[in-house]
Every structure is written in structure tokens, then in C-alpha cells.
Amino acid sequence: MNDRDVIGVLNDLIETSKDGEYGFAKSAERVKAPALKETLQRRAADCARGAAELQTLVVRFGGKPEEGGSAAGALHRGWVSIKEALTPGSGDHAVLEECERGEDSALAAYRKAMKEELPAEVRQVLERQMQGVQANHDQIKALRDSTPA
């Protein structure tokens, strides 16, 4: 895999991380429970740190890092907004369902990236970040399961 290919994989994951940052931040604005709001804000910050780490790697490999989210993420956010508008009074449970859906997508993106022939330093970062995405997913799922619908 050449540097340009590595940069492409990393930029795809930057978009995924930016989607997560935006999604968690917007979700934190929508939930009512203060502890849940705080948790989602922390997840947004984690995604931002992950994106920054990937952007540093892109620069190290001679590329220009992505700055924003993906088109698919924008579509998902649009769907969430429409769904929210059409479902007045949707509670924290519904927001957590959308967060879990977003984390499912992020896990799929990391799994796809890990199938590539990546340099060891990149693979190491992605493996660690993927563990973080899995932990986020598991935490959001547990919160969703314990939040009344």
C-alpha cells in the first residue's frame, strides 16, 4: 500500500470521527438527563481527539487531512433531524438509538480499514481507536438499554 492509499484510508476515518463528534455533540443537546448529556459530550470530545490524531498521521504521510464529516454522515444527521421533527417528544432512548446506529457505522469503517495492508504505526493507532469505538458502542448500548423508551 503506497502513501496515497494510506492517506485515503486515514481520511475516510477522519470523516467517520468527525461524524461521531458532530453526532454526539448534537445528541448531547437533545437529551434531557444531565448525566447522559455529560457522557455524550465526553464521547464527542473523544471523537475530536481521534480525528486530530488521524489528521497528524495524514500530514506525516504527506497528505492533506480531511476537515469535516462524510456525505453519508450528513445524510444520517439529516435523517435524525427529520425523524426528530416528525416525532415530537422523542426521549433520550430514541437519541441513544441513533447514537448506537452511528457507532455501528463507525465500527464498520474501522473494520474495513483494518483489512488493508497498513504500515505498523498506522495499524497500531487504528487498533487502539477501534477499541475506543467499540467501548463507546458498548456504553451507548448499555445506556440505551437502561433508559426508558
TrEMBL record:
Gene3D superfamilies: 1.20.1260.10. SUPFAM superfamilies: Ferritin-like. Residues 5-116 form the DUF2383 domain. InterPro entries: CHP02284 (IPR011971), DUF2383 (IPR019052), Ferritin-like (IPR012347), Ferritin-like_SF (IPR009078), UCP029477 (IPR016920). It comes from the Bacteria. Pfam families: DUF2383. This is PA2169 family four-helix-bundle protein.
